[in-house]
């Protein structure tokens, strides 16, 4: 497999993962955060404020924007690695369209990867923040102190804010490694 084919496969992976996250964002936006029957907390307890619901929608939109940006950059890089050319076959000029992998400027490719990775990481952070707000709406506001709902909210948020940044750190390390090679 040529180096350019590997780059195209990596770009396909970025687009596919971003597509899955974008689907999650749309599902999140389709859910009505102000539906009182969809809450798991006691109405007299630590209900989320309208500001938390507003932040939920804002973080979903920011996340969608970042994933779309990252995917468009990756798709642009993928198209830049393809070259349309015509073939000469057996002494005759036969002109037909054929896609061939092109030689691309490695510096431009690396910068594009980094820009796309930054978009994906930023989108993931915003999606994580949106999920923290979902937890606060469904289970109660963090730091409420009621003992019940707040404990469940922390139990849901702690793994989220532990594993997502850890995964993003690993992703950034691999992007940096690929960038320096």
From TrEMBL:
<keyword id="KW-0812">Transmembrane</keyword>
<protein>
    <recommendedName>
        <fullName>Maternal effect embryo arrest 60</fullName>
    </recommendedName>
</protein>
<keyword id="KW-0472">Membrane</keyword>
<keyword id="KW-1133">Transmembrane helix</keyword>
<feature type="transmembrane region" description="Helical">
    <location>
        <begin position="111"/>
        <end position="132"/>
    </location>
</feature>
<feature type="transmembrane region" description="Helical">
    <location>
        <begin position="152"/>
        <end position="179"/>
    </location>
</feature>
<feature type="transmembrane region" description="Helical">
    <location>
        <begin position="12"/>
        <end position="31"/>
    </location>
</feature>
<feature type="transmembrane region" description="Helical">
    <location>
        <begin position="57"/>
        <end position="77"/>
    </location>
</feature>
